[in-house]
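User
Take a look at the entry that follows and flag anything odd:
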Amino acid sequence: MALPINATAPDFEAETTEGQISFHNWLGDNWGLLFSHPKDFTPVCTTELGAVARLKPEFDKRGVKPIGLSVDPIDRHSLWAKDIEETQGHAPNFPMIGDPDLKVSKLYGMLPADASGDAASRTPNDNATVRNVFIIGPDKKIKLVLVYPMSTGRNFQEILRVIDSLQLGAKHRVSTPADWQQGEDVILGGAISDDEAKQLYPQGWKAPKPYIRIVPQPN
C-alpha cells in the first residue's frame, strides 16, 4: 500500500555501498531524499544517479542527504558506479541501498507484499514500480512522494525546487504558488490569522480573494 504524505517514513536496516545503516539514525536531524531504481545497469537510472552526484553540493547546502536504492546487491552497485562515472562524468557520492530481498521496496509500498524471487532473476519490468522519490523531513515524516515511469528521467531541478518550497513552508508557514521559483511571492498559510499576519507582515499583503493572501518571500 502506498505511503501517504505525513506518514512516518518506515525505518529499516540495510547494506549500502557505504556500509550497514539504520535509516533513521543515518538521517539524524537532516532532510532525506530516497530515490529508487528497478535494476542496475538501466539507461535512464544511470543518467539520474549521475545527475544527483553532480547536484550533491546543492543538496548539501539545503541539509538534504540523498540515498539511492536499487533492487540488486551492492556488489552490482559498485560495478554500476564505474559506468555512471564514465558516461555521466560523476560517480555516486552518496550511499546506494542494496535491496535484493525486496524488503525495503515492499516496506515503502513500491512492490506488492507478495512480490518474490531472486533479484538476479527479476527484470526491470518486474520492478517497474520501484521508481519513486520520497522527501523526508527531520521529523522522519514523508513530505513528498513522486512516482515515475521507467521511460521518463526525473527532473532533479524540480526536486530541488520542491525542497526549497517545503523548507520555506516549514520555517515560515507559507505556501508557494504554481511554478514558484526562489525569490518570488508566496501565499500565507491558512493557519495564520489576519491578526497574526498583520504582525508578521506590517506592510500588508495583496488579496485578490479573501482566501488568497500574497506576500514577498520571507528570508
